[in-house]
Structures are given as structure tokens and as C-alpha cells.
From TrEMBL:
Protein source organism: Lysobacter soyae
Gene3D superfamilies linked: 3.30.420.270
Protein name: ExbD/TolR family protein
Sorted UniProt keywords: Cell membrane, Membrane, Protein transport, Transmembrane, Transmembrane helix, Transport
The keyword Disulfide bond appears for this protein: no
Similarity comment: Belongs to the ExbD/TolR family.
Length: 147
């Protein structure tokens, strides 16, 4: 009887990484971010007027009181992000911010079509009732260069 010796070939080790699961996870995350990005509204839509004033540099982050065209008030300061407030709540929140950050300015970002009286009333509230030392108006730099 003849004994047959069959040699078995050993398979070479495969050193490749299977990246298909990583691609699947990446695509799922991409879809999630694409779906949620439009839902993140980070600001109040305010059409700021243009001016030729220069930009003010500050070390502390300012509080921003936004006034939309309808005259509604929103506050962005510290942990608050575009929170709609009544005038009384605005005074309380801004005065607390002014006590915590005495050197921080408070800016009023009013829509260009907002009533001048409303903007003036907000500035008066900030200075008289909230006791803000530095209150000012925000604007967009003008597209034309100043002479």
C-alpha cells in the first residue's frame, strides 16, 4: 500500500483591518449631524443696522439683549442662550449678571425695524433699574470704508 502524503498549505495571515464597521458608524453619525444641524438655532434673527464705528475689544464676554422687530426681548448671558424674557425678568437677570461681572458690558442688539422707543426703553431699563455701568448698541460694520 502506498501511503500518500498530502501537504496542507498553511494560509497566510491576513493583516488587514476590517474598516466596514467604522464606515457604517461614520455614515450614521454623518446622517445624525446633517439632520440635527438645521434644528440648532443659535441666535435670534435680528437685522442689525450698519455703522462706521470701530469694533470694541473686551476681555470679558458681554451680555446681549436682543430686541426683535415685534419688540420681544431675549437675553444671552453666561448660561442663558436667547431666552425670551419680560421686562421685569430682564432687569433681574441683567442686574444679577452686572453684579457677578461688574466690568462686562451689556449690548442691545435691536432689529433695524424695531421701534426706536422700544430700544430706548431697554437702554433706560439697563442703566436705571439693572444698574449696568456699560450699556451700548450693537451694529454690523458698514460695507463701505469710512473716509
Amino acid at each position: 500500500m502506498a501511503v500518500r502524503h498530502t501537504r496542507r498549505r498553511k494560509r497566510a495571515l491576513k493583516a488587514d483591518i476590517n474598516v466596514v464597521p467604522y464606515i457604517d458608524v461614520m455614515l450614521v453619525l454623518l446622517i445624525i449631524f446633517m439632520a440635527t444641524a438645521p434644528l440648532l438655532n443659535l441666535g435670534v434673527n435680528v437685522d442689525l443696522p450698519q455703522s462706521k464705528a470701530s469694533t470694541i475689544k473686551t476681555d470679558t464676554k458681554p451680555a446681549i439683549v436682543s430686541v426683535n422687530a415685534a419688540g420681544e426681548l431675549f437675553l444671552t448671558a453666561d448660561t442663558l442662550r436667547n431666552t425670551p424674557l419680560s421686562r421685569e425678568d430682564l432687569v433681574a437677570q441683567v442686574s444679577a449678571f452686572a453684579k457677578a461681572h461688574p466690568d462686562a458690558p451689556v449690548y442691545v442688539a435691536a432689529d433695524g425695524t424695531a421701534s426706536y422707543q422700544t430700544v430706548y426703553d431697554v437702554l433706560s431699563l439697563l442703566q436705571s433699574e439693572a444698574h449696568v455701568a456699560k450699556a451700548g448698541l450693537m451694529s454690523i460694520p458698514s460695507q463701505t470704508k469710512a473716509p
